[in-house]
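[Q] Does anyone have a clean structure-token version of this?
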Amino acid sequence: METTGPGLLLLLHLHLVVCVSLPAPSNVSISSFNMEHTLRFRPGLGTPPNTCFTVQTLLRLRKKTWRPVAACLKLAAGHTCDLTRAFKDPLNHYQARVQAFTPTQTSNWTSSGPFRPLSDTVLGPPDVSVSGCGNCLLLQLRAPPASRLQPLTLWYRRVVLHVRRSRDGVQFNLSQPYQEENTISYLQSGVEYCVSVSVTTLFNSNCVSSEPRCAFTSPPRSRSSLHVVFSLLGAFCLLAFLLIGLGVCAGWLSITLRRRPLQRALSYVLLQCRNHGSAPIVVSDEISALQQHPEGSADCLLHPEGSADCLLTAC
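[A] Here you go.
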């Protein structure tokens, strides 16, 4: 009994150690997009279903003191941990670690690699709108929604414009300081171009280009528009001819109306000659003086001003 007692205690101790220890988490990594940092991990092989996980972070440039992340003290398997507020300084180096635990057991810690927010984040593209301006394109850039800590434009250094001509695929790149309004000049008028945009920073080369946005430098001429122009021109010419015709008709009608009193006077004289003494016919006030002359005579009508207009008859 004395020889077997210590051996049994040792076996019991080893059994308790094996039971208390949980599988450590695996694949602990930190990903970042537009300065939003996320920690991901996987439970170790054989981890019980009711296991929880806790996260701690370390600022590597200071003394090695691990600090718990308040929002990630009790995570379930498959959940992620948001480290954006924990990594406040974009220029410092950080590290994170994860541990599995149950009410009676814990696992060893599994650490991530070192992480530097500004250089390790991936910068997404700004929103792009493109419009034509004759022989150029006008680009309006709008940065993605601001980070919870600092606006992204604070870190933007340059913008790279990738330009491609749709007609034949010819393309070129332009790099210029970041600004919200950009102009691409010296392009062909009436031609479609597609533009994608990416940004760079002084400490980061991880950038993603935007989807291409296409626009014509100026509206292309279409056959339908030419048909409209010719139709309007034809209608204008037809209207002009109608106006000219109306003018000619109005002039002719005016001349005709002016000659009618004289014609009526001559007609009256002829009628008087034919009637030979019949009662005079009153045509108008202008020829009432004709009724006072003998029938069959050819006399002159004297106007008050002294002028004489003779009406010659064939009587």
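[Q] Thanks! Anything notable?
[A] The radius of gyration is 52 Å.
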